[in-house]
Batch of 4 targets.
Target 1
Amino acid sequence: MIDVDGVTCRYGDVVAVDDVTLTVPDGEFLVVAGANGSGKTTLVRTFNGLVTPDEGTVRANGTPVADDLVAARTAVGMVFQDPRDQLVSATVGADVAFGPENLGLTRREIDRRVDHALDAVNMAGREDDRIAALSGGERERIAVAGALAMEPDHLVLDEPFAGLDEPARRSVIDRLRGLHRAGTSVVVVTHDLRDVLALADRVLGLANGRIAVDAPPSAAVDRLPALDVRVPGRFEADGDSGAPADGDAEATADDSAAGSAAGRKRDR
Amino acid sequence: MSTRTESVDLVGDEAAVNLARAALFAALVGAFAYVSFPNPVSPVSVTLQVLGVFLAGIYLGPLWGPIALVLYVAAGALGAPVFEGASAGVGVLVGQSAGYLWSYPLAAGVVGAVVHRSTTLRDPASAGLATLVGAMVLGTVVIYAAGVAGLVVVLSLGPVEAVTVGAVAFLPAEGLKIAAAVGIVRSDAIAAA
Amino acid sequence: MTLSYVPGDSLAHRLDSRSKLLVQVGFAAAAYAYTTPRGLALLTLVAGGCLWAAGGGARDLWGYRFALPVLLVAPIVAGATLGDPWFRVGRAGDTALASYRVAVVLVVAAAYVRSTPVRDSRAAIRRVVPGRAGVFLGVGVALVFRFLPLVRHDLLAARTAIGARGGGERPVRERIRLVATAGLSRAFARADRLGIALSARCFAWNPTLPRLAFGRADAPALALGSGLLAAAAAAIV
């Protein structure tokens, strides 16, 4: 369980998060929605102490995050936008093992967790694949596996669909559904609800660092467009639906490596 | 699952970012080996590794700049294709370019020390033209002195012969890199430091 | 083509990375201690053996072609003199041997690069370099391997984009500035995201030691490495 109590975060004169109070119960699929600059990324980064609030406290499973960062970071796994910059090893297995190694676990336990995490993202048996040869969707799933290998209670994903093409998005959503069914709490941060609304138990809409909407999806859907959040069935005709062109280029940046063709095919 | 969390000795968020920057800078110096430009005053084309050494000192300072170059040398020795001509291997560290490579961490430290005057970094754009150019000229002296000394030892050359082989054709291009580095610092395009 | 790790199961692939590093250090020391025609002839056999044991061949040496001009020119420069006798064969011979010495050391290095994945190199660092320095160096080296293709792509894309916008007519200094600025700002952006990701994954000073164990095949490799080192030491003392 994550408890956020009266949290305010500032960057200089800018108030990114403004006196937010919030509880995320175990097992919940929560969507945090908001336009760019609404404070959603800053808010979730207080969950595991990557951002320290200027005011207020955050507790993970009852313990203040600031008192035990390791406990907070194992309780709340986090996956960031653009998996290419968060994968740290040349091969899949070594990358997923990075977190468990930092916890000082035995080799046996690390192997078990790596197997388990890869299985959960549909990448079982791919330990020796080179990261550079993976497709965008596969890389995203390896980033998720890296977080899962810490065996977190909550899995937080920041804009997990940015830069992914349609089949890759579906493969990621599919895995999130599976993880949630298996009991993991999932928090998805996004400015585009089309992909995740059907999975959500609850939707949080942020505007100017404050909670503007906190409701089940059916009730939230009418109020979110006012916050510049894209919802299903609306704005589909917009010229900019789908990922920005720049994001697409990003996602394929290191696919020039030999073997990428095979990697991409597997993903589709 | 929160068993034994007290036994985990976290690196610290600031040091983690510093290591990430050092590693990315090492990769940048290595990637510079792949980008060559025609040299207006010499038949030998210009690659930009030395520019990377200057920039490491300027942007990462006298502590993390050398660490970045140590990572560069270590990664190259262990097989990352980051050395001249995209080569790699321990052998390169005792080969003809040994002197140059071993001097990179030191040169980055010298440039960083002159620009920042302490391990607390300041905005390099505030350092003044003379300081920037002076720092990089000093860095160039360190690199070429070590490079030429390396040739004397490795290839049994006399000092004049070593300068002929290892400096005359390359030295003029360093002026270009110093000018480019000054342009980068003064263009305000880099706001990360 | 670039010299790099090639997956395989040759003898060298099965060796512990520490044994292979010892052989390299021993070989380099021996090559410097015995820079004589006889010594280098013997070491050439050893070097060829190493590359063969790694499943490599002449192709792998192509990656070192950049070294050739200097190695070939050096003996000529060393031999040439202004005035009588214009060319000193003895001096040129000394430098030619030194050049050849560099070449054979590179052959052994190629065998290591070809047969050792980053994971094993990182494991060797963790075991050989003590404490925090070893952790930092191990993770740092792994990150360089991981990010090199990305940063290289950033730079080449910047150069192409600048060329497409008529940058070819600008002076070289200006083009260098533009390409380096693009590469640098992308590198900083990546580093800041990576740093946060490392923290989120509990980047620690005391992680589990990597798996690395000497096998039976390591005995002869360790013997070769220490034998070469001992021979080098004997020549100096």
Note: Chain B is about 60% helix and 0% strand.
Target 2
Amino acid sequence: MTGRRTVMQVFLWPLVLALVTLCGLLSALLGDGVWDVLSWCLLAVPVAVCAVFASGRQDRRTHPER
Amino acid sequence: MSRARAESTGTRMQRWRWLHTWSSLVCTVFMLVLCVTGLPLVFSHEIRHLTQTVIEAPALPVATPRASLDRVVETARGFHPALVPLYLFAEEDEPALWTVKMDTRPDTDESAARFVVIDARTALPLGEPRFDDGFMSVMYRLHVDLFAGLAGKLFLGLMGVLLLVALVSGVVLYVPFMRKLAFGTVRRERAPRIVWLDLHNMLGIVTVAWALVVGATGVVNTWADLILQAWQREQVTALRAGHADATAPVDGASLQAAADVVLAAFPDKAVSTIAFPGTLLSTPAHFTFMLRGNTPLTSKLVEPVLVDPLTSQIIDAAPRPWYATALLLSQPLHFGDYGALPLKVLWAALDAITIVVLWSGVVLWWRKRRAAKAADRAATRVAESPA
């Protein structure tokens, strides 16, 4: 098990994902064409992260001993 | 950390836990309804096209001139002789059609309004779209007002505020849970309760930004009627201060003459909605032209232009207040309809994840409650058993 993590460490990835999500939400609002595509790519990130962690694939990669 | 500080942190966390449990429990049933009904609503445009309930404009040469708006209004009045027109809507992707919303009076709550779609080039009626029956209409009403009008909207808005409280308190509670766990950990080898808890935390934190935006914009949308009424009052007040008569009666004024003046003054804009005097989007004595710009953002931020029906003169109205801008921006950010089909698919996926977060929250609460009751019973048995 990892040691006790600080609040900053706990929120590092959630913050990154929140920023990615917000940029995704705004980009399609502010532009068309390539901005729509950017928005799809950015909003696909949280969906993909959920899928990877929920499917347990991440487990095997970071903890190969299991 | 000193012992006293550790204790106060513990009590504080207990308060947050209480807040998270009860704010979510109260709103969960309604949020599940909103998430489930929201799924088909995200695709309502596609579903209407697939089920062929959309009225389409007949193919005519591109250069066919547009009919006078006065003839369009005449056609609408002929189609629903007992009703008066309230609004003319022009969809961005269907410029050849006018959808006219009609009711018995301009100032009803519009819940029993009827529609007629009119060809913008021939001024011929193409049919009456029915938005008030069928599966999608039930989904819409359940999502918007639970069939209870303004009261239902405001109630759902309150539930939305509780959701925001649950989201924020959930983020606070995320810290103690994750002190010793790597981001995204789901401990599959542990008891089912732990697996549910890890899934709830992981899915919740990954989608929290989206949930906050859709939740908050949903709350703002429940206030749409109130915001539009306040905006209308502000405009009427501004007009009265400028000595323009905002309550003069209108009869027999030409809508086309007004439109000509507006489009000449704003050549780079297009008409999104025309509101008749006395409706929610206008003042008692003016036509309001809602103009959309030609960029993605300005096409959402419609700008009202008021026209005196008698003189066909543009009235300088007050600039759009901040709360109206907030409402106009809240609409796309809640509906997810501003980035073509892929954005809608992602919206639906995030919505489905939110359903899992809500459901896992209920499961966790239920299992904890059952475990506590079982422990209670066991304790009672021990206490009652003869020593």
Note: The longest helix of chain B spans residues 340-384.
Target 3
Amino acid sequence: MIVFKRMSALLLAGVTIMAAAGCGSGGDTTASAGGADDGKITMGFAQVGAESGWRTANTKSIQESAKAAGIELKFSDAQQKQENQIKAIRSYIQQKVDVIAFSPVVESGWDNVLKEAQTAKIPVILTDRAVDSADTSLYKTFLGSDFVEEGRKAGKWLVEEYKDSTDTVNIVELQGTTGSAPANDRKAGFAEVIGAESKFKVIASQTGDFTRAKGKEVMEAFLKSNPDIDVLYAHNDDMGLGAIEAIEGAGKVPGKDIKIITVDAVKDGMQALADGKINFIVECSPILGPQLMDLAKKVVAGEQVPARVLTEETTFTPEQAKAALPTRPY
Amino acid sequence: MTALVRHRLFWPAAVLLLLLAANVAFTPGFLSIEMKDGHLYGSLIDIFRFGAPLILVAIGMTLVIATGGIDLSVGSVVAISGALACLHISGLPDQNDVGGVLTAVGLALGLALVLGAWNGFLVAGIGIQPIIATLIIMVAGRGLAQLITDGQIVTVNSASYKLIGGGYWLTLPFSILIVLAVLALTAFLTRRLALGMLVESIGGNATASRLAGIRSRGLTVAVYAFCALCAGIAGLMISSNVSSADGNNAGLWIELDAILAVVIGGTSLMGGRFSLGGTVLGALVIQTLTTTIYSIGIPPETTLLFKALVVTVVCLVQSPAFREKVFQRRGRRRPAAPQATDDEKVEVPA
């Protein structure tokens, strides 16, 4: 009983301290929000985690462009857990930030916390990944890549590359993590474009979990069970890099004997492209920061923004990769 | 014939042969092995090569399970060891420098040993349940690996490091040679010396073995350290094979595959007995299953279901109780010890 009393006393003390802290920062942000005329905006950003190089570059871009745009950034890392993200968003609501941005870990289960933000009149911007809420008024806009379009870009290059040929083109595909949005959409976009011509045949398609090790392992098996492979389409650079090692191990020349298309354009992938081992890369840019800050300013100022904003992205050939590599930030 | 069927390893071996036969049916040249660029090349070699890290981790896991414990941290140790080695090599002025690569290997394996000893200390010294004690490094270890790599994939370009997991020696993949060496050493230590029996006695009854004069604490710490060392070598192989360290994904869920391999091989999860040969066979079954999925083109959406079905069948045919029910056999039943295991392993499909 005594222990229990002590514990509740401790808890109480803790709550008081937290409440005081909440008041303090709350007062702070109201002050800055009140001074919105001088352009000082506070943004709460709830990041997914730091699970890949892509994500780290994404985080860095957001932090740097917030500084450059003069926006005060409150940043939290959810370590791939939805409950952490919801907690972070709730705390941003309590702190009365001017705008909340986040990359949802999963697609569903956001309605409640988004309604709380709406009630508190704090606009929400989604970045990189979407939510499946039926009520689209819960967020102002969604800034991110169009994965289907990335698949289409990969397919278009292939169609162009083989436009003079009538022979069958045997394609193998390394998919991303089964069921993830980028894997589903990149597969669908690619299939849509090459499906128009019957000479393109996907003879094997298997998941490589977006990793180099799996990409290599799966490609080794493909090479043995399918002696005649013309093209490899990998849903990200890393799987493509693993597959390159498998192709070299089989005594073939990547980029020549087997043409390789990948998505992402991270540094190692760009290097392989410049070396001619990859033939074409569709960019999936993590540099969302500048666009996000622009949108945040517009949203806070009450301007209308489009419901879907695409990331500015391009594609790379080996020549373009050589030119871009020295100044590539990630 | 009956003696053969009664042999402990008959059923896992039968499943392995069946899987290989299925592959031959789908890919006619599956069993062919040729020379390419001065080394052996073929699907069978691939199974050994990609299975090598799993076999290593499973060997370490076998001994830990024989003491009645379990080590969930091996996947994280795989990631940490690869990350540390690649980080050190990427900082070398000459990445091909053999001395520098050896230092990197030494650092990585040293850290693995420390982590293993920590697990052993928590289990034997403080008496925390193994599943909880090793859970700590399973969770925190991945964070450590990410800290080492700064959340990025560290790429190295070192021919000497490449040898460990992706190179060849005397036409054979070097990783297979490492596995054979570790296997031979472990078999010698545990089956030619009394060490194996001592380990089993801890698993049988830790208190009784201590009262009988066996230093069970020190031995338990050593077994966990050995398991982590195996995982560390596996981590070097995995990262060397793709010349890069991925703190997030390297060795992810390998602990579950390793436990499954141990169990398919007929080692009891209750501890007290183990079979190294069975573990190697179990690991080969798992790797062959993976390769089969790639070569016969099972769609990724159904891969896990297919794996689970095969594993369930393996476990069922291994269970004497199940076979007796289904085949109505009235022969003498085998000792009861493995039965409990065989039922439990159905729970594990990874």
Note: Chain A touches chain B through 34 residues (CB under 8 Å).
Target 4
Amino acid sequence: MNNGKINRVKDTIFKYVGILACSIGLILLAIFIGNILIDGFSRIDLDFLTSLPSRKAEKAGILTAWSGSLWIVVLTFFISVPIGVCAGIYLEEYGKKGRLTNLLEINISNLAGVPSIIYGLLGLEIFVRLSKMGSSVLAGSFTLSLLILPIIIVATREALRAVPSSIRAASYGLGASKWQTIWYQVLPASSGGILTGVILAISRAVGETAPLIVVGALAYVPFTPKGIMDEFTVLPIQIFNWVSRPQHEFSINAAAAIIILLIITFALNGIAVYFRNKWQKKLS
Amino acid sequence: MKIKLESKNVDVYYDKLKALSNINMIIPENAVTALIGPSGCGKSTFLRLFNRMNDYIDSFKLSGDVLIDGQNIYEKNILVDELRKNVGMVFQKPNPFPKSIFDNVAYGLKIQGIKDKEFLRKRVKDALVQAALWDEVKDDLNKSALSLSGGQQQRVCIARTLAVEPTILLMDEPTSALDPIATTKVEQLITSLKEKYTIVIVTHNMQQAGRISDYTSFFYMGDLIEFDKTDVIFTNPKQKQTENYITGRFG
């Protein structure tokens, strides 16, 4: 066989290896979703969404869980986004390339790899105990904010880096200050990318369980949070709780709650994709 | 002939690399001065001295004096943003902001805090008229500047610069990304602008330098080899190197 023929055979082989690799993930996901849908879809109705938790499986609902999740997500958003985006802007636009920035950069990448339960322990010590917030929505949000900050910072920096330097040069050339250039040109041009990162980070926060258990989110809360200092539960913890019960009815409840959680996560990811596409079109 | 820009004993280093050595040159007011020379000869670096765009390069180091109207623009008390309102720049590749044509041209004024809509509209129109673009875009000022052709984009960038009413225009190969028709338009524009502006243009195109400039300086490997009236440089250069370059024997 000549070289060209070998290369074409290799091409074909790799194509099928690639298809196989992709389908493993997709098939597993499809099986999982199919399973969940069969188990839980018929359980979802308005009552399920608006009922408090109960010891009786058929009466139990996820009102406290999804409202707790909503509280957590909104608070986490308002805590983590300003801090994360500002930190990203500083590191990318202002930070002089020196030892301090290097140190910060390495540590931020490290933080992104720390297991989430460690963040839970950190949150328990700093927010629940030291700051005396107790097992509140606020403490939970701060903990999750810590967890997703590295993701937001990294996403922000990448989005800023993707803005062509010619735009900055043009802005400076017209007499704009650094802040004006960032505010009027760089941030608008990178907002789609930043938003994508933020939404992906938030959708990760929606699904986090371990750190919130450590911080003290309860599985059974008979009321919805009325303020940031109230106790709370979230969807993943409710699911975890139901799954661990022996009765079959509860695992049906869990399946139904998983569907709701997946819908929320997919919706968030969908929004992220939408903004990314819109942003890419705008720049080219 | 009044002197607008001047460099005295200018050395520029990027780290240890010497990019310009001992440049002494004057640039006359209300004329077009072309900077020519092979790639890497330092002509762009020289051009960017006058609006301090080299400041963003970490390794950039300068010694000597760079003067505008007799004032050293590298002194401590010089406000760089004020300087750049007086010294406009047009870049090699058209780089309009991803915004509407109107917002592109109005940007320089908006960042000065000017909000008066009537005033902005008038200035934008004047600038686009000056840049010979008004007739082509007057009906779609709200269209994205990115939807224009390359030549139109470059004229938006020129209009954007003119709207701030500078007295000096720096142009870094402004037609190198344009087709011949767009190039002709921009060249005509440059010629018409020199009544009001002092224009310095970097170009790789000998014919262009010959067509539009009044003065030409030839740079080679960080040295200013020769500076004179354009017709003298092109017909009767004093230096052998200049002659070789212009006749295409090297570079």
Note: The mean pLDDT of chain A is 88.
